[in-house]
Design goal:
By secondary structure, the protein is α+β, with helices and mostly antiparallel strands. The protein has helices at residues 17-42, 72-92, 96-118, 139-157, 174-177; strands at 47-50, 53-60, 125-131, 134-137. The chain has one domain. The chain starts with 16 loop residues before the first helix and ends in a 9-residue tail after the last helix.
Length: 186
């Protein structure tokens, strides 16, 4: 019989990970909806802010980079499924960094769904932050991007669950110290 290393317990979740993610998502949705309302009410002409940054109201019926243009109902359905998966992932998260990332992506997804469902633009998302050579975006899009980058960096740096720890040269690992039961006896 082969021995295996210790398995991480299922209860190894970070305490309050779901609450942290949901709290961040609420802040993102509030910031996204407040800025969108302000822009729709007061921004009549494009405004240059600083360097490549500016403000100009645009309506996007697609997803990021205008993909799936005109598929608003499909994007809402996919966003609801993704939001549910993000809540489960946040609940299971084993680090605060992951919970923050999930919260940013969740808040961005909910903010964009709110635009599609509750703003009178036939399912379009309101985008208003402009950069010189980049598509126009909004606070929800920025939160999604930052959250995804944070999650990628977090999971890239973290060793996978099945990866054994590497012992310094010359040091004996627990597996080396344990007697082998596979060897044939004379």
């Amino acid at each position: 019989m082969q021995e295996r290393g210790a398995v991480a317990p299922l209860k190894d979740r970070v305490p309050g990970g779901l609450a942290l993610a949901v709290g961040i998502a609420v802040v993102v949705v509030a910031a996204d909806q407040a800025t969108t309302s302000w822009v729709e009410a007061d921004l009549r002409h494009p405004v240059h802010l600083l360097g490549p940054f500016g403000l100009a109201v645009r309506y996007n019926s697609g997803s990021a980079f205008s993909l799936f243009t005109g598929d608003g109902p499909l994007l809402v359905a996919v966003s609801v499924v993704v939001a549910g998966a993000l809540v489960v992932a946040a609940w299971r998260s084993r680090s605060r960094v992951a919970a923050v990332g999930y919260g940013l992506v969740l808040g961005g997804a909910v903010g964009n769904v709110a635009d599609r469902l509750f703003r009178g633009h036939h399912g379009d998302v309101v985008d208003f932050i402009t950069l010189s050579h980049w598509p126009t975006f909004n606070v929800a899009d920025a939160a999604i991007t930052i959250g995804l980058v944070l999650l990628v960096l977090h999971f890239w740096r973290r060793p996978s669950p099945g990866t054994p720890d590497v012992a310094p040269t010359g040091a004996r690992t627990q597996a080396d110290a344990a007697p082998s039961h596979d060897a044939e006896e004379p």
